[in-house]
Design brief:
This protein has 278 residues and is of the alpha/beta class. Helices cover 39% and strands 19% of the residues.
């Protein structure tokens, strides 16, 4: 696996592959790779002829008081995992490469980026949309792969790519879970042994909420029940537990449309998010 740190070197590889009529996949990450990230890499390797992974801890998606400084960094292990998987190129830019002096442009997806996670983390999706827009333009891949665990993020990125006529296809990949249901996340390392025993209650509860709504329970009633269950399990707080339309992320009111249960809750140092389809 080749490793490059600037856009010119990245594009040289892509131009060479294009000259050979090879398809290109992109797997954006912030490192601290786990099996969820590797599932994205495997999907890209199965779907396209050349795969680029990126490793960039994007400062613009961390708010004041969040864990930018303590975010897990495991670069050597990440390189070993990507190399072992057969990824062809790692793009690992510095913050200066991504946001050089004088950088003054941002991307915001109004509406989708302002609710749920966006309401609790103001500016988060602006940071995500900006960096992903740059990565898509830098790599010019045919397909980019993102995990469904971050379902709202996936919707924001798809909308951004559509609105800005970015030709890269955005493909979602199913959430990878531990055997007890906990969604894999780089931030799971923050959980203590005791908290790790509590954490699976999040997934179980939203599955139960989905079952209740499918059986005819009013979404608001199911949401209130689910939030109470999560708190009773030992979580410190629930930022939101919402039953939403899968496309608009607005409250779920039309049973003929696909729906999703989204949740974010605090457990010790870890803020866990998850979702399930109705």
């Amino acid at each position: 696996m080749d490793i490059v740190g600037n856009v010119d070197e990245l594009r040289k590889h892509v131009y060479d592959w294009r000259g050979q009529s090879l398809s290109v996949g992109l797997v954006p990450t912030m490192g601290a790779l786990h099996d969820g990230h590797m599932a994205l890499a495997r999907r890209s390797l199965e779907t396209t002829e050349r795969t680029i992974a990126t490793l960039f801890i994007n400062p613009r998606q961390f708010g004041q008081g969040e864990d930018l400084d303590s975010y897990p960094r495991t670069e050597e292990e990440d390189v070993e995992k990507l190399t072992g998987a057969g990824v062809h190129l790692l793009f690992a830019p510095t913050a200066q490469e991504m946001y050089p002096n004088g950088f003054s442009t941002g991307v915001a997806v109004s509406g989708l980026g302002d609710i749920l996670e966006g309401a609790f983390r103001p500016g988060f999706f602006d940071g995500v949309a900006t960096v992903v827009c740059k990565l898509l333009n830098q790599a010019a891949a045919d397909i980019a792969f993102f995990g469904e665990k971050d379902f709202q993020q996936l919707r924001v990125i798809r909308t951004m790519a559509r609105d800005l006529n970015i030709p890269t296809r955005i493909e979602g990949v199913a959430t990878v879970r531990e055997s007890d249901g906990l969604a894999l996340s780089s931030r799971n390392v923050y959980l203590s042994a005791e908290e790790r025993q509590v954490a699976p209650a999040l997934y179980q509860t939203i599955c139960d909420v989905a079952t209740k709504v499918k059986a005819g329970a009013p979404p608001a009633e199911a949401e209130a029940w689910g939030s109470a269950q999560i708190l009773a399990a030992g979580f410190a707080s629930v930022d939101y537990l919402s039953v939403v339309d899968s496309q608009t992320l607005e409250p779920y009111v039309d049973a003929s449309r696909s729906g999703r249960v989204l949740v974010a809750a605090q457990l010790g140092r870890a803020r866990l998010i998850d979702n399930v389809a109705l």
